[in-house]
Amino acid sequence: xxxxxxxxxxxxxxxxxxxxxxxxxxxxxxxxxxxxxxxxxxxxxxxxxxxxxxxxxxxxxxxxxxxxxxxxxxxxxxxxxxxxxxxxxxxxxxxxxxxxxxxxxxxxxx
Length: 110
Description:
Structural class: mainly alpha
Strand content: under 5%
Helix content: 55-70%
Number of helices: 4
Oligomer: single chain
Radius of gyration: 22 Å
Low-confidence stretches: none
Distance between the termini: 45 Å
Mean pLDDT: 81
């Protein structure tokens, strides 16, 4: 019961972190300064958050900034999630009761 709940919360948290980081890194003026038409700035930003860079293909300055923002956000998200996964593994190992541990069987020789 808790596995799907934990997975969905983890994916939502990772997505929110990525979205926030890309939004902070990209800023509101980068697509506009890169030559993206004013009406398409929000669409371009939403595309970058989801990893779609096609709307910016005609605007090299904005495309470079968008790729840097996405990779910075992705790197931060992966780093944070790996630290959380390691902490969870250590915590789970520490919390396993002695009666629930399985000892490996000795190999028979002969």
